Target: Glycerol-3-phosphate dehydrogenase [NAD(P)+]
Amino acid sequence: MKVTVLGAGAWGTAFGQVLADAGNDVTMWAKEPDIVDAIEGSHRNPVRLPSVERLPDAMRATGDRGEAMRSADVVVVAIAAQFARVALEPFRSLVPDDAVVVSLMKGIERGTDKRMDEVVRETLGLPEDRFVAISGPNLSREIADRQPAATVVACADMDVARKVARACTTDYFRAFVSSDVIGVEMCGSLKNVVALAVGMVRGAGFGENTAAMVETRGLAELASLGSAAGADARTFSGLAGVGDLIATCGSSLSRNYTFGANLGKGMSVDEATRVSNGVAEGVPTTAAVVGLGRRLGVETPLASAMDRVLREGISCSQMLSALFGEDIVEE
Ligand SMILES: NC(=O)C1=CN([C@@H]2O[C@H](COP(=O)(O)OP(=O)(O)OC[C@H]3O[C@@H](n4cnc5c(N)ncnc54)[C@H](OP(=O)(O)O)[C@@H]3O)[C@@H](O)[C@H]2O)C=CC1
Ligand SMILES: O=C(CO)COP(=O)(O)O
Model:
């Protein structure tokens, strides 16, 4: 198939390599001319994925939107979530009528509190059977090294999910299918907020018990909010839910975990942003999760506590106190 990836960041590029390894012709679209030139000219992305010495020959790049979209069967969106709407707007009239659009993004739009399935479908004018969400424990650096990994490919139309899953299956990358787009989106977005908090307690020097407590309460919050949004509860215990929480909350390869760890060590939000190696989606998504919780009538103690960390600069101990009220409650 002909696949176009919008956004040559760390994950867009690593996933482009998966698609090329699976036998597709892959075109990367990037707005930065330096990145386009590097991929096209020397098969490298030294800015976003320097660990890969040479990207597959089946991967090329362009900065031209029309050329990127020409006869694409599948369009993959891998842009920082808060910029998805503005970046996709110029593509609205260019996406081929029968192309499937896949989102790799893990975030909720600040201001509208919308998931990426909502943002992408709204911006490109797509019916639900042409939208696919992909999410799972997929740290880009490990997948770029071709370490074994799996993901969840979700679409309202299971035949479309299977078609996309086949297109990204290799001997090291395995795709499971699901029809629970909302669940997969909620898991991918909320685990980033949990990873910020787990990273923060680790950075502050706390051990396994504290990290497990925060991660487990984060999973409970993700499940309550996800269910209220219409997700299938089974998704939370799968790869996109628990699987991604384990990977993200336990790895310094995660930008969200590392951002949180830097806060825990005493950096300000500005300092942690400056040293972040790519987008930490949990940062803008935290406020959106609080907004979504308010709208859906679901309490979000972890996101609310992290929101205070990010806006008011409260300490790790204050964040942990804010996480639990005074009352004894059922788990
Ligand atoms: N990295 C990972 O391990 C994984 C990431 N994800 C998700 O994938 C998404 C992308 O992540 P990742 O590739 O790692 O992020 P990076 O920080 O590496 O790259 C961000 C990408 O967004 C692009 N971008 C930002 N603003 C704009 C804009 N206004 N117009 C067009 N493009 C823009 C950047 O383009 P430019 O470089 O030209 O500025 C870049 O391609 C995120 O939602 C992330 O949560 C999901 C699974 C794994
Ligand atoms: O989503 C990811 C792993 O599944 C990547 O996490 P970060 O965005 O925190 O790096």
